[in-house]
Amino acid sequence: MDFAVGLARCPGTCGEWVQGARKGVPFLVDCPIDRFSEARVELNKHTTGWDLPLRKTKALQVLKLIEEELGVSKLGGTVEFLQQLPEGKGMASSTADITAVAAATLIALGVEPTPERLADFALRIEPSDSVMFPGITEIEHVQRHYHRVLGPSVPALFLALDWGGTIDTRVFNARPGLAEHYRRNEDEIRRAYSLAREGIEQTDLEKLAYAGTISARCNLEMNPKSWFEPFLTWVRQKGGLGVVTAHSGTLLAGVFPQDSFTSQDEEKNLRLEAQQRFTPAYLDLFHSHSGGIVATKLELTENAG
């Protein structure tokens, strides 16, 4: 075939349920949501260059890694993003972009885009989330020694707020003092991790939200969020169970049971009150997601391309 097209979609995250270190080794437990990066990759055997948005430098990096790993000497084509995530907020936008592009490219080449292979590509580029795996996954996101799927996602609703600015994942993970911060908080992170495991195994959102709140509070030392305590108090007053945060991003979200609001008016009123009270630059409602990628292949003839 002169052309082959791969389509792939990867979810983003509402930060992380837990992030810290175990015996000095950083790890995180992801929080996948129903927001996505979706990429369409059209391979063209007549070209060796890539046409893709200029700012998507990490997508270009993963394309080069694929060329090297598969030993493909002539690979090129077009990359189009059909859906994108806000960047620099802690929603795993870079990981989702890398994963979607890699999965779309691999499936267009006839190679199975396994979560393990996609995670390896992402982690070779930068510290990464684990949204390519189904369910909620623990991963050593810096040293990339292992990953562990902890169980299916727990149904939840997230009211996410952001007050502007961006944080670069690589810069955050290279910050002086981060290792010492993790060391000081290992006991609290161990407690949060234990609660998170119980919450996932028991489908107990209250335990999972409590774990998220512990980890989010620990993170304030390295990534302050001035509205944290007032927002947490308000979330609980509104029937929420706690908060989850982007540990290397700007997002902070209230965690609510999935069936908290029985009408669109109730959700609208919650949004309006949050906007008026906390004046965020960005506000949205997410639902938890099952995690993992969806990828399909479409073969085209030259005339149809």
UniProtKB/TrEMBL annotation:
ATP-binding as a keyword of this entry, yes or no, is: no
UniProt-listed SUPFAM superfamilies = Ribosomal protein S5 domain 2-like (SSF54211)
Any single GO molecular-function term of the entry would be:
kinase activity
Q: Which UniProt keywords apply?
A: Kinase, Transferase
Q: Which domain of life is it from?
A: Bacteria
- Provide the GHMP kinase N-terminal domain boundaries: 60-126
Enumerate the InterPro entries for this protein.
GHMP_kinase_N_dom, Ribosomal_Su5_D2-typ_SF, Ribsml_uS5_D2-typ_fold_subgr
Q: What is this protein called?
A: Threonine kinase in B12 biosynthesis
Q: Which organism is it from?
A: Desulfosporosinus metallidurans
